[in-house]
Structure formats: C-alpha cells, structure tokens
Hints:
By secondary structure, the chain is mainly beta. It is 14% helix and 40% strand. It contains two helices and eleven strands, in the order βββββββαββββα. A seven-stranded antiparallel sheet has the order 5-6-7-11-10-9-8, with helices on both faces. A two-stranded antiparallel ribbon has the order 1-2. Strand 9 (94-101) and strand 10 (104-113) form a beta hairpin.
Amino acid sequence: MLAASSTVVVAQPVDWPRYKVPESGAVVDIPTSIFSKDAGKPESGYGRRFRTSDNSAILTVQTVTNDEGDSPAVFLAKKNPPQNVVYRKVTHRFFAISSFHDDKIWYNRCNFVARLATCVLISYPASEKRQWDGIVTRISNTLASG
C-alpha cells in the first residue's frame, strides 16, 4: 500500500483500525498512518475529522440527522452539489459523489439508515489521484451505519 503526501509518495505499511462514531455506532476503516492528525469535530453532526501530517488531505467521518427521512437522491439534491461532478452513484441506501475543486479532489459518500446519514468526506491533492484511489475506495467500502 502506498501512503500519500503532497510532496512525495512513500511506500510504507498502512494501519487500518476501525473508527466508531460513538453517538451513532457507525464505523469505517481509517488509515491512521496516513490520516495521523486529529482535526477536531465536524462542522455538523457527530464524528471526527482527520488530517495528513502535511495537511494536504482531510477526512471527515460524520453522522447527521435526516429528520425529513429523505432518500439519498433527495438529500443530495438539497445539498446543491456543483455542476462539474465527475462521479455520481445514487441508490436507495447511499450516494457517492466526487469532483474537482481548485487543485483538490473531493469525495463524499453517505449511507442512510432510518433518519440518519453517515458520511465520509475526503479531500486530497488532484496531482496524487492514482495514489489515493485505493485508499478512498477502501474507506468508502468499509463505511457502515450503526
């Protein structure tokens, strides 16, 4: 596995412990050897934010309420995603969306259970897309609502 950095990509072992949002029970595997800095609470909901040691990438894990019981498609539409989306997948249980902003790629996946949405939001250097693809995929695929 490769660890990403904005200045160099270095081969190193990657630890993937499971992070649990205590308030919702949602879980996700996080590469703590990459996202090694605690960046505090998310702007809304419950969870945590993590940064790389060089601050070039950020990962937010959060559970937010879906008080109106919106489907993933309706929830996403209410967030007014940008027009330049390059990847979008919407099902009855989740959505995943990605695009570019300045020199970064951002990726957002939200899983829906009852009146909760559990999400991962990842922003990383666009110049390192290939190195990040597997990392983003594993984070996304291990996200599970509580």
